[in-house]
TrEMBL record:
Protein name: Conjugal transfer protein TraD
Pfam family for this entry, one: TraD
Lineage summary: Bacteria, Pseudomonadati, Pseudomonadota, Alphaproteobacteria, Sphingomonadales
InterPro entries: Conjugal_tfr_TraD_a-type
Segments of this protein annotated with the region Disordered: 76-102
UniProt organism field: Sphingobium cupriresistens LL01
UniProt feature, compositional bias: Gly residues: 84-102
Protein backbone atom coordinates (compact mmCIF):
# COMPACT_ATOMS: atom_id res chain seq x y z
CA UNK A 1 0.00 0.00 0.00
CA UNK A 2 1.14 3.54 -0.71
CA UNK A 3 1.06 6.19 1.94
CA UNK A 4 -1.06 9.23 1.44
CA UNK A 5 1.15 12.26 0.93
CA UNK A 6 0.83 15.07 3.45
CA UNK A 7 0.02 18.55 2.27
CA UNK A 8 2.39 20.53 4.47
CA UNK A 9 1.34 23.84 2.94
CA UNK A 10 -2.30 23.20 3.84
CA UNK A 11 -1.32 22.19 7.37
CA UNK A 12 0.77 25.35 7.77
CA UNK A 13 -2.11 27.50 6.47
CA UNK A 14 -4.48 25.83 8.92
CA UNK A 15 -2.07 26.42 11.81
CA UNK A 16 -1.57 30.03 10.73
CA UNK A 17 -5.33 30.58 10.56
CA UNK A 18 -5.76 29.04 14.01
CA UNK A 19 -3.00 31.28 15.44
CA UNK A 20 -4.68 34.37 13.93
CA UNK A 21 -8.01 33.30 15.40
CA UNK A 22 -6.50 32.81 18.85
CA UNK A 23 -4.76 36.21 18.68
CA UNK A 24 -8.00 37.93 17.62
CA UNK A 25 -9.90 36.24 20.48
CA UNK A 26 -7.24 37.36 22.98
CA UNK A 27 -7.45 40.95 21.76
CA UNK A 28 -11.25 40.85 22.03
CA UNK A 29 -11.07 39.45 25.57
CA UNK A 30 -8.58 42.14 26.62
CA UNK A 31 -10.95 44.80 25.28
CA UNK A 32 -13.83 43.24 27.18
CA UNK A 33 -11.71 43.19 30.33
CA UNK A 34 -10.87 46.89 29.99
CA UNK A 35 -14.54 47.71 29.45
CA UNK A 36 -15.80 45.36 32.16
CA UNK A 37 -13.53 46.83 34.82
CA UNK A 38 -14.43 50.40 33.89
CA UNK A 39 -10.87 51.13 32.81
CA UNK A 40 -12.19 52.40 29.48
CA UNK A 41 -13.12 55.59 31.36
CA UNK A 42 -9.41 56.29 31.93
CA UNK A 43 -7.40 58.20 29.38
CA UNK A 44 -4.98 56.00 27.42
CA UNK A 45 -1.85 57.45 29.05
CA UNK A 46 -3.15 56.66 32.54
CA UNK A 47 -4.24 53.16 31.58
CA UNK A 48 -0.91 52.45 29.89
CA UNK A 49 0.98 53.78 32.91
CA UNK A 50 -1.00 51.61 35.31
CA UNK A 51 -0.41 48.51 33.20
CA UNK A 52 3.30 49.27 32.89
CA UNK A 53 3.56 49.69 36.67
CA UNK A 54 1.88 46.30 37.14
CA UNK A 55 4.21 44.63 34.64
CA UNK A 56 7.31 46.21 36.18
CA UNK A 57 6.32 45.59 39.80
CA UNK A 58 8.60 43.16 41.64
CA UNK A 59 6.65 43.42 44.91
CA UNK A 60 5.19 39.96 45.49
CA UNK A 61 2.69 41.19 48.11
CA UNK A 62 1.38 43.88 45.80
CA UNK A 63 1.02 41.42 42.92
CA UNK A 64 -0.80 38.94 45.19
CA UNK A 65 -3.19 41.70 46.28
CA UNK A 66 -3.88 42.50 42.62
CA UNK A 67 -4.37 38.80 41.84
CA UNK A 68 -6.86 38.44 44.71
CA UNK A 69 -8.77 41.51 43.56
CA UNK A 70 -8.86 40.19 40.02
CA UNK A 71 -10.10 36.80 41.17
CA UNK A 72 -12.84 38.48 43.21
CA UNK A 73 -13.82 40.55 40.16
CA UNK A 74 -14.19 37.44 38.01
CA UNK A 75 -16.26 35.78 40.73
CA UNK A 76 -18.71 38.67 40.46
CA UNK A 77 -17.79 40.52 43.63
CA UNK A 78 -15.39 43.14 42.24
CA UNK A 79 -17.21 45.78 40.26
CA UNK A 80 -20.56 45.35 42.01
CA UNK A 81 -19.00 45.94 45.43
CA UNK A 82 -17.28 49.08 44.12
CA UNK A 83 -20.57 50.49 42.84
CA UNK A 84 -22.30 49.91 46.18
CA UNK A 85 -19.45 51.68 47.93
CA UNK A 86 -19.81 54.70 45.66
CA UNK A 87 -17.02 53.81 43.27
CA UNK A 88 -17.10 55.44 39.87
CA UNK A 89 -15.24 52.78 37.91
CA UNK A 90 -12.20 55.03 37.61
CA UNK A 91 -10.26 53.68 40.57
CA UNK A 92 -11.57 56.30 42.96
CA UNK A 93 -12.16 53.54 45.49
CA UNK A 94 -8.64 52.19 45.13
CA UNK A 95 -6.90 53.62 48.19
CA UNK A 96 -9.07 51.77 50.67
CA UNK A 97 -9.01 48.48 48.81
CA UNK A 98 -5.48 47.28 49.32
CA UNK A 99 -3.67 49.91 51.33
CA UNK A 100 -4.15 51.57 54.66
CA UNK A 101 -5.00 55.24 54.34
CA UNK A 102 -2.98 57.49 56.44
Amino acid sequence: MMRKTRDYDAELRALSDKAKSIKAKKIQQLGELVTGTGADALDLDTLAGALLAAVESADAEEREAWRSRGAAFFQGRGRKAGRRAGGNGEGGNQAGAGEAQG
